[in-house]
Amino acid sequence: QLQLVESGGGLVQPGGSLRLSCAASGFTLAYYAIGWFRQAPGKEREGVSCISSSGDRTNYADSVKGRFTISRNNAKNTVYLQMNSLKPEDTAIYYCAASRFSVCVDTGYDYWGQGTQVTVSS
Questions:
Q1: Residue 116 burial (CB < 10 Å; 0-12/13-18/19+)?
Q2: What are the 10-residue block averages of pLDDT along the chain, 122 residues in total?
Q3: Facing residues of 55 across strands?
Q4: CA-wise closest residue to 87 among 59, 58, 67
Q5: CA 42, chain centre distance (Å)
Q6: What is residue 2's predicted lDDT score, i.e. its pLDDT?
Q7: In sequence order, which residues have a C-beta less than 8 Å from that of residue 32 and are 6 or more positions away?
Q8: Torsion sign across C-alpha atoms 54, 90, 6, 36
Q9: Which of 49, 56, 57, 86 has the smallest CB count inside 10 Å?
Q10: Bridge partners of 81?
């Protein structure tokens, strides 16, 4: 049984922060690149960030660079997304996904979590 579970979402005011977690069970997360994605109502899903299996390389969407930080603790089988200086346009359901590859590419995300809601509003 391969599962990914996101947590840490919630309601915050603009300028606030949240830390999302993506915990894996049933498989060893250390072998997979992990991506964070988000989907707002009425919009297509977009990539937010990705981290390689070893954690040595990361990438970010231009819209979140300088505000979001992805990290991982393979010993805990968990990946994190620290989100600072949140804006209303960050409001979305955030999903983590495990890639079949060890490096960040556009395809190959075979395992997905259920998502966690992030709402940024005053």
A1: buried
A2: 92 98 92 97 96 97 98 95 98 96 92 97 95
A3: none
A4: 67
A5: 20
A6: 80
A7: 53, 98, 99, 100, 101, 102, 111
A8: negative
A9: 56
A10: 20, 70
